[in-house]
Amino acid sequence: MPKMLPTVLGNLVSKPATRPHPYRRREAFARARGRIIFDVKQCVFCGACALRCPASAIRVDRNERELVFEPFRCIICGVCVETCRRGCAQMIPHYHSPAYTKPEEYYRAPVEVKEENQL
Amino acid sequence: MAVKTILPFGPQHPVLPEPIQLRITLEDENIGQVLPALGYVHRGIEKAGENNDYPLNVFLVERICGICSATHGLAYCLAVERLLGIEPPPRANYLRVVWAELHRLHSHLLWWGLLADAFGFESLFMQIWRVREMVMDVLEKTAGNRVIISVNAIGGVRRDLSEEQISEMLHTLEECEKQLYALLPVMLNDYTVKKRTAGKGVLTSEQALRLGVVGPTLRASGVAQDLRMTGYAAYGELGFEPIVEQGGDCYARAVVRARECFQTIELVRRALQQLPDGDILTKPRGNPNGKAIVRVEAPRGELMYFVVGNGTKNLERMRVRTPTLANVPALLEMLPGAEFADIPVITLSIDPCISCTER
Amino acid sequence: MGEAHGPHLELPDIDNVQLVQQEQLLQHVAHFAAQGMRFITITCIDNGEQFEVYYHFDHDMKLNHLLLVIGKKEVLPSITPIYFCAFVAENEMKDLFGVRVDGLNVDYQGRMLVSDELPSPPMRKSSDSAVRRNGDGS
Does B183 touch chain A if contact means CB atoms closer than 8 Å? Predict the structure, then answer.
């Protein structure tokens, strides 16, 4: 007991080491792997991210110009961010909030402008 | 007249974070025969490793075991690098050491907390885990995740450390060391700790070698074998000396891990001070071909990867020998003769990681 | 820096392999045991036609391997009478590859890791799939 005494006394006067989580949240660290978002305006639908994704959480349809991302399959490794040359895949430090279902996220290119250009 | 009872210990038990069952034959209060039953968390990762592309396997092997994920990734990358004939840049080697040692530190602190919890010293458990939380925060700040940090890639590392992060890391480690020093007298000399661990589950050095024991369990039996002595990554340049205890009991194992915590802090400090400048990644080219064996020291002991490439982007075979797989047979000799109440402490003393064992 | 750069490459690689016959396996293992070697593990590789079984041993941080090549229907002698701890590796081999091992001290009947419902050993390859794979590689 006497050996623990300094620690015990220190704990009496110091703040708690924990925090009441849902009411007071810690600010996310700048380099934390929170989740992946896609800036679809930059995307050329090359499919490089889908090919490299270890969890197969990304599907890219080049003809439909559509990118489907499954955030609850994603392991947030960041390979897509490293792969993407256009800066479309981005990592933000804030975590995805828990959910009852596992919805997929659809990203579609602004089709009308592109089609006019092609024609 | 002794009464024989067959007692299933596990698969769900307060001291076991993971499922393993020990079928224990009790003679009154004493343990007779022990038989482990495995297979609760077998995921077929060796098989999955043959179907993935070899760069993606890094993320797969990191999920064999959360707590030593950095070491698993490191071992796999070293093996594939050897097959591809590439050499990571020196800075990457040092950064690998930094993250692998931080993982060892938080793993040993986790184990110490669990040990304190196993013999009912809740207060020590919480104090140690508070120290551990600082290490976890350092990992999250630098690598992005608390546990599965995925910093290793084939040919180097994926994240670099900035000057501020290095100084912040050094500062946190100093604070961590100070708080651990304050707890050390309790960890090593407290009556409760000694009463519950000293003289329990004794393993002599001959027994340990014969049973193929690895890691802190082996070093606590007086055998100076630590794979870091072979100097993989940057360990050869950091002046590493293995930590050895002679007791061979649970107390000696606890002492080895406590001393390794301080050694680890010192190694990280040295690695950060000597950190060379330069690139962090050599781009891998081609497909792996041939056979390579790499052994590294995970927090729990020797981790062996045997990787066979066949010239395609898939591997022919990926064999993983994890430390706990080698330590489980030792339980079969340590437990018989011990008392019933010591089962949790002796089982925990090998630091069982069942996800590792079954892969 | 020069000599210390990447010293892990100096470790003995997979060179130290000794090919043994099935009958001599136990003699070799007993010889290793007499030298005080630490048993590491057994690796089984299915090359389609045969099983390549590697026995790994450690002697003062240096690796020694024994390689045994057996047909798929042949029976492998267990080394558990010499190295008790080998039962984990041998049972695992039995589970995943369906290698027949004779004389195991603790025999899980091929059900240590896998469940009873599994019809066949999961890592065993049929011979034509291995030919296809090797064809890709060369």
Answer: yes
Residues of the domain holding B270: 44-348
Residues B305, B163, single domain; the answer is: yes
pLDDT tens-digit map of B138-195: 888 888 888 888 888 888 888 888 888 899 999 999 999 988 888 888 888 888 888 8
Contacts of A55 in chain B (CB under 8 A): 59
Three-class SS of residue A35?
strand
CATH number at residue A37: 3.30.70.3270
> What pLDDT does C130 receive?
46
Domain count, chain A: 1
Q: Are the CB atoms for C76 and C20 separated by under 8 Å?
A: no
C133 touches chain B (CB under 8 A): yes
* CB-CB under 8 Å, B123 with A33: no
d(CA B325, CA B63): 17
pTM of the model: 0.86
Inter-chain touch A31–B182, beta carbons under 8 Å: no
pLDDT of residue B108: 92
What average pLDDT values come out for chain C (138 residues) when binned by 10 residues?
A: 35 66 85 86 84 86 85 84 86 84 78 77 67 42
Residues B189 and B48 in one domain: yes
Q: Do residues B314 and B52 lie in contact, with contact meaning Cβ atoms separated by under 8 Å?
A: yes
Tell me the per-residue pLDDT of B90-115, one tens digit each, with 9 for 90 and over.
889 999 999 999 999 999 999 999 88
> Is residue C57 one of the residues assigned to a domain?
yes
Radius of gyration of chain A (CA): 22
Q: At what angle do helices B163-189 and B250-273 cross, to 10 degrees?
A: 160
Residues B209 and B250 placed together within one structural domain of the fold: yes
Identify whether residues B4 and B140 lie together within a single domain.
Answer: no
For residue C123, tell me if it sits in a domain: no
pLDDT for B339 equals 85
| Same-domain status, B187 and B298 | yes
CA distance B250 to chain A (A): 22
- Residues pairing with A10 in the sheet: none
Q: Do B319 and C13 touch (CB under 8 A)?
A: no
Closest CB from B237, B276, B293 relative to C63: B293
Give the whole-angstrom CA distance, residue B20 versus residue B9. 8
Residue type, B124: L
| A66: containing domain | 28-118
Q: Does C6 touch chain B (CB under 8 A)?
A: yes
A77 CB neighbours in chain B (<8 A) are 59, 150
**In this complex, which chains have at least 3 CB pairs below 8 Å with chain A?**
B
pLDDT of residue C134: 46
In a domain, A18, yes or no: no
Q: What is the pLDDT of residue B265?
A: 92
**Contact yes or no for B183/B128 (Cβ under 8 A):** yes
Instruction: Give mean pLDDT, residues B293-305.
Output: 89
C60 within a domain of the structure (yes/no): yes
* A98 domain-assigned: yes
Residue A1 in any domain: the answer is no
* A14-51 per-position pLDDT tens digit: 888 888 888 888 888 888 888 888 888 888 888 888 88
**Contact yes or no for B317 and C43 at CB 8 A:** yes
Question: From the candidates B54, B56, B128, which should be mutated to test the interface with A, based on the most A CB atoms within 10 A?
Answer: B56
Q: Chain A residues with CB inside 8 Å of B137's CB?
A: 29
Is residue C28 in a domain? yes
Do the Cβ atoms of C136 and B302 come within 8 Å? Answer: no
A111 within some domain: yes
Same domain, B255 and B123: yes
pLDDT at residue number C7: 35
CB contact under 8 A, C115 and B39: yes
User: What percentage of chain B exceeds 90 in pLDDT?
Assistant: 9
Question: Which residues, 6 or more positions from B172, have their beta carbon under 8 angstroms from its beta carbon?
Answer: B134, B135, B137, B138
Per-residue DSSP letter, C33: H
User: Is the same domain home to B204 and B103?
Assistant: yes
